[in-house]
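Before surveying the methods themselves, let us examine one representative protein, pairing a chain with its fold in token form.
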Amino acid sequence: MPQDNLPELLAAVERGEPGAFDHLVSAVYPELKKLAHFQLVNERPGHTLNTTAIVHEAYVRLSVSEGNWGNRRHFLRASSKVMRHLLVDHARKRNADKRGGGAKVLTLEEDRLVNADDSLAVLALEDAIKEIREIDPRLEEIIECRFFTGLSVSETAEALGTSKRTVERGWQRARAYLMSALNIEE
């Protein structure tokens, strides 16, 4: 389905027309795959979820939501947020599975630390973003657009309905908060 039909598809989804959501997802499927790939870039190698699985799980979660997306960017931003939460949920489950269930106790070895999966890092990032949301919810939106969705400053400004300069300042502030919260030095 051509991209120029997206406003019509978004309106049809909002009206609750049967099959409209499926057509919308088909129209933006390549972009959803790119978003999922972008989300996985910072994950550990050999992650058990792949881009297709993430897109399909996001489809399921989005299909039961309200579906009030004003435009393409808003829909993609919402999709990206769902994908991020999906990866966080996956990391939490993976971490919980490691803490019990009759698992054999392992000793800490340096080479195991180097190869450890980064589910703790995903959870730490999510906690840092929650802290940022409490300070300034707009910064969370900027992080979602820039870091998780991969939008440029201009695209982020358009998606959030603000100026490029506001996004630049917010991104600088958000990065500083993240780096501080995650104990990262430049």
Q: What stands out?
A: The first helix runs from residue 6 to 15. The radius of gyration is 18 Å. Confidence is low (pLDDT under 50) at residues 101-117. The CA atoms of residues 15 and 139 lie 31 Å apart.
